């Protein structure tokens, strides 16, 4: 049951990629502190599907400055519920510093397997190539989940005493049986991950973030072109993106879920440059209408 707040109102529940100690948990806590009730899930997909009237908020990683887009997240953003009952309502950026963590006593030369979220493995490629070139890389649902696995008697047949995890240094304060072998092992010291805050329905009771933007100045629009027009694909794509006619800060493309080879879905993040234009929300809506008039399908997945 959710904890009651001082004013008698229940705190909203926020789903995040657990267990405690993930970067997602840190990002959520930085943004919401003790104003929400935290509910952990095992995978990004589980976090996304937790969104419901009883779990009105969810935080999912969207992109990393070294390794790029979080593929699971973009695949989930293709879901029909996006723009209908689930919306992007904010973003959070977290500085990421990875550590190589082992069970106490394990030395670098003994490591044969490195466990972590595929994003973290991808962000530490140079370190792994130089220091653990023969180690196998074992993808895990989360960095903290990988660290926890080191404490199990066997990891899918692997000896935990020959394994390391890549995760945040906070793990060793949560799990004192583990220790840090190397710190700051990401390819670049400037390493940030951006997360999308999702909200169920047009839920407005989101606790105000500490750095609330004065107006809505970001929007995420999903665009696809008619399946029948495959022969004209390049022309259609350009036409639909031109029709939107908004200031684009990010463009992503994933295969459409339809069984049509090379049929794509575009995710266009747009921004209001001046932060002062009160008519911007209407401009976004007009851009979406223009895409529809050109025969495209455009959905507003969120504004914040
Ligand atoms: O596994 C975690 O700790 C997460 O929160 C996921 C995640 C991601 O998917 O990008 C978040 C931040 C880092 O980039 C590494 C992993």
From TrEMBL:
GO terms for cellular component: cytoplasm. PROSITE patterns: PREPHENATE_DEHYDR_3. Pathway: Amino-acid biosynthesis; L-phenylalanine biosynthesis; phenylpyruvate from prephenate: step 1/1. GO terms for biological process: L-phenylalanine biosynthetic process. Gene3D superfamilies: Periplasmic binding protein-like II. Keywords: Amino-acid biosynthesis, Aromatic amino acid biosynthesis, Lyase, Phenylalanine biosynthesis. GO terms for molecular function: prephenate dehydratase activity. InterPro entries: Chor_mutase/pphenate_deHydtase, Preph_deHydtase. Residues 13-200 form the Prephenate dehydratase domain. Its EC number is 4.2.1.51. It is an enzyme of class 4 (lyase). This is prephenate dehydratase.
